[in-house]
Amino acid sequence: MGKRVILIVMDSFGVGAMPDAPSFGDVDVNTIRACMSSPLFAADTLAKYGLFSIDGVSDLPYVLQYRQTHKEPTVGAYARLAEASRGKDTTTGHWEIAGLISAKPFPTYPEGFPKEILDEFSKRTGRGVLCNLPYSGTKVIADYGDEHVKTGDLIVYTSADSVFQIAAHEEVVPCEQLYEYCRIARDILQGEHGVGRVIARPFVGTSGNYTRTSNRHDFSLIPTGDTMLDLISGAGMDVIAVGKIHDIFAGKGMTEYTYTSGNEDGIDKTVHNMDRDFNGLMFVNLVDYDMLYGHRRDIDGYAKAVAYFDERLHEITDKMQEDDVLMITADHGCDPAYTATTDHTREYIPLVIYGKKIASKNYGTRETFADISATILQYLGVKNTIAGKPMDI
Predict the structure, then answer these.
(1) Contacts for 64 with CB less than 8 Å, ≥ 6 apart
(2) Does residue 206 sit in the same domain as residue 288?
(3) Nearest 5°: CA angle at 316, between 36 and 346?
């Protein structure tokens, strides 16, 4: 068996505001600090791997108190990483983790999408458009669901992120038809209006009781350059994508992929893949932190989800081979205690690295998320022709 790297993204698990956070509208944001305020928070295994030793985390009140009763040595390597790209969204964060820095932010639409975009979209789908404003995903179906069911018009909305979201009832617009509408929108939204993601948001239920389903699907822009996925698969190695990784990279550079219905399913599939004889990278996204708890500003839910993952980590590490490396990180913040908005927050991300041959070391604060890809490429023996500086693990 060759070398294997398991890279898990805890979607939105930021570790404190970056210096430029106020320019993104984020003041004193800190996702991990918010989670630590909940009695449901627990992260003993992640702490052992170095999470509580990271710059800016090690001096949080929860950690200082934790250290008084927990004296176990750190067995992993760890770092805090700054985002070099101008953004705080899923696509930008994941692309940078994979070695592609976005100097120009994706376009956002705080006042809705231009008339010419929606006219073209309606012309090609044959359906009208409702809403066209930044909106909460749960509130938008509550406010516009009845009209959608009555007319068949599509609910189009956005957020502070670069997204074009289409909500439709599964009995009015079957999922495959909704996905086709998203492909149409993706084809329209290029160039100047090239949003990071077009997202299908199907829902079910009756008036007053509409709920979103797990049949969400993202349609991202194709990455504007090579990423570590291209370099690793181009070297003849495996790139296994779990969760929404396939959508974030528009399938580019991966050798196989599987979707997940949430964190539990994502962890199950990661554990299952550990029994396989692959050589290269397994890239996993656990989305519930962001989608179910961060945006909904549910501190206890977020904290409980962190504790659940921490409790199950041993199922992954128990299956690790001698040369396997586990990396756990995030792609941005989404502070559940920050009530000024319900959007992502501009934060540093954590990185913990664990393996049987990994020495405990503090790699400090890094200049870019791309140092993750540089480290992975160096470890796998693949020449790095993209951004980032490796950590010598």
Answers:
(1) none
(2) no
(3) 40
